[in-house]
Amino acid sequence: MTVDQLPSRTDRFAAGRARATGARRSRASMTARRHRAFYLFTSPWIIGFLLLTVTPMAYALWLSFTTFDGISPNWKYVGLGNYRELLNDPVTWDSLGRAGLFAVTSVPLSILAGLGLAVLVNRPLKARGLFRTLLYLPAVVPPVGAGLAFKLLFDQNSGASNGVLTFFGIDAVPWLADPYARYVLLMTVLWAAGNVMIISLAGLQDVPKELHEAARIDGASSWRTFRSITVPLLSPVLLFQTVTGMIASVQTIMPLLLAPLGDTSGITTVPQSNYLYMMHVFAQYFALGRYGYASALLWVLFVLILVVTGLIFKFTSGAVFYNVDPEAKKK
Amino acid sequence: MTATILPPKPSQAATSTPSGVRVRIRARRLALYTVLVSVTGLFLGPFGWLVLSGLKTQGELAASPVHWLPDAFQWHNFADAFDQIDFLGYARNSLVIALIYATLVTLSSAWVGFGFARLDAPGKKVLFGVLLGSMMLPQMVTLLPTYLIFAKLGMVNTYWPWVLWGLSAAPYLVFLFRQFFAGMPRELEEAAIVDGCGYTSIFWRIFLPQSWPVLSASFIIAFTWTWGDYIAPQLLLSTDRTTLAVAVMTAYVNEGGTPVPELQAAASVMYVVPILLIFLVAQRGFVAGMSTSGLK
């Protein structure tokens, strides 16, 4: 491009110099072009992020300092009033505690289950492709379908689970009510462990075979091999699963879908033991229309997630192996 | 469960006779298959129960103790589920929204992913960090205030939110495309640049036509997200314009407001099956997409 504009000189030296500056100039303009192109290409996301993520978050932050409810024109600025109120609200603490308990049980359990399934279907088996597909299938079922299936399965009268219990002479259990509803919620998460399985499986297949052979020759037991080779090599995957699993568990709407009438206004029918933090937010938002207070709740959750994610990364930084063989990084 | 995690011990051939080893291997194999088959059965159980519930009468579904199998398969439940609500109308709404979103978000994410994979500029590292960080952002935290803003802009009960979400790319899919594009050979675009091609045409003419596996994976992932999404349509759309997810969950009630479980079960089977079929057909790409974005 710029080469065309070069003055034609007969002097070889001058021509050479001109070519050099021309090349430099063209390289500079190419770089500028790449820079411009980079922003042209990334702009949809940048603009979208600013408008659809940053703006709502900022709006929620502003709302959290007000008594805005969407209807009353007399809303006012209350400073940290909402935050003070939520700190003094026992429901906030109880629901936060339940959400935390749900996260620290459901996340490790589903990772363990998923990892177990991955190891199981990573063996040379007949029809293992079929097993993988079938085990993964529940993870594709949309939440509404999953919620309904579990509601029917754990129905106190006509559910299969109580059918099995009564067959063994055990009294029927009101699974969808307190205090059992939490176990049903947990099972819906475990049902989708195929997600972890698929991702761990991809990780397992990346583990070099030589490592396992070397360990076997050295006389390591299979448990030892699993603990000292497989798990460390999978640790980035497991870390990723922990973080995304935790975030997913915090925002799950499954309690709504398991409640007698799945509807945002049916928030009142969610049993106590499934009344997680997000349900508290929903109730404030939709049942009560307290946008200001609910926004404060959301911001507290957001900051908590940032802190917890940060802590997870900090405390695992020594335990996670990002890659054994830098050469092998690019496959 | 722990037993299943353990790989088998290497056979201690030195101390056993060859036939003993064979017997032990066979026994272990049998145990493995037994575990696998029962676990798989357990995983398919809830969905099987849903199908079975859709084939029962209301009386059988309310019976206590449980009525395991319907006396006669009530196939008409599936037809009734169509008539009780405007099933096809809601399915069409779901389809339209999912197609709009999946098409737009796939193109925009590919576009943005190309930028992150093949171009650079000051600030790229920071932006990429923000992109990865935003994957960790709980969507529910932004959705609720977004709903208030959309309401203010008069976009509630329209499909505009999905258009806007689609146009602004999804971090997860951007990452998927970035990984794919970053692995393509440099010579591709160098030759095109020498020929005077701009980056836009490099993207459209060279990169995009070679990305069918990722494009389809991204489209399917985005489609299933939208089809499965309950909360956004529940918040943003009124009862007649809403999606099948919301209708299946809330619309199967009789005049008195009590739910009609057998129709709801039948309807939710019909709601879930298309997604299962899409997954089964496109499994390879879908799984590859899920695991790439979960890894590096």
Q: Can you identify the CATH class of chain B?
A: Mainly Alpha
Shape of chain A, please? flat
CA-atom Rg of chain B in angstroms: 25 Å
Written as H for each helix and E for each strand, in order along the chain, the element string of chain B is HHHHHHHHHHHHHHH
Number of domains of chain B: 1
> What can be said about the biggest beta sheet of chain B?
none
Q: What is the typical, i.e. mean, pLDDT of chain B?
A: 86
Predict the CATH topology of the largest domain in chain A: MetI-like fold
Shape of chain B: flat
CATH architecture of the largest domain in chain A: Orthogonal Bundle
DSSP helix fraction of chain B: over 70%
Q: Say what oligomer this is.
A: heterodimer
Give the uncertain stretches of chain B in residue-range form: 1-14
Helical run tally of chain B? 15
What is the β-strand count of chain B? 0
The tally of domains of chain A stands at: 2
